Amino acid sequence: MKILLVRHTESEGNMKKVYAGSTDYVLTVLGEQQVVEVMMKLLHIISPKSTYSLYSSPLQRCTKLAEEIERLLQTINIIDSRLSETNFGIFEDKTYEELTQMYPDILESWIQDSIHFQIPNGESLKICFERVSSFCKDLINRNEDAVIVSHGGIIKLIILALLDLDLKEFWKFYTSNGCVIEIIYNDGFGYIKNISQLEYGDEEFGD
Asked: pTM of the prediction?
């Protein structure tokens, strides 16, 4: 089973450097240009004779790219809410500097235990991992090649789930805007085969 993980291109949330998990930001002008670059990469990766299922987050910074991939694959994009970025609750749409002023105690609690601490009105990383793992189990059961368009944090969690890695390894992966990560998964074992980054796709913060 071949799985292509594709992160959305630059959004206004990325440009503002805010925590933009569940906030539905549009793409920037650069983000629109990067969509073309990602499609060129996928044209070289995906064989014309191959068949893929296509899944994406419901947020428009992902569906914009998924619409283009949908035409390439000649398939229907399946929107799955489990692929939405982590809900940052009261941290949404705020920069780190703003959080240090507005919620210093809550921010410190989050920093001290970023896996289990649940941001007020939002999710913990562990809760988010549970829904992503549920998606991955369904994907494995279907045993199909797939392209998944999602967010930086969610792509890291998919990697952890498919490679059977501990959640504490989350911070050891880098997922820039427009990156394409190829995973091979067969008989309960997964590995990363290829990682492709855009030349100007280096913004990971905030998603």
From this structure: 0.95
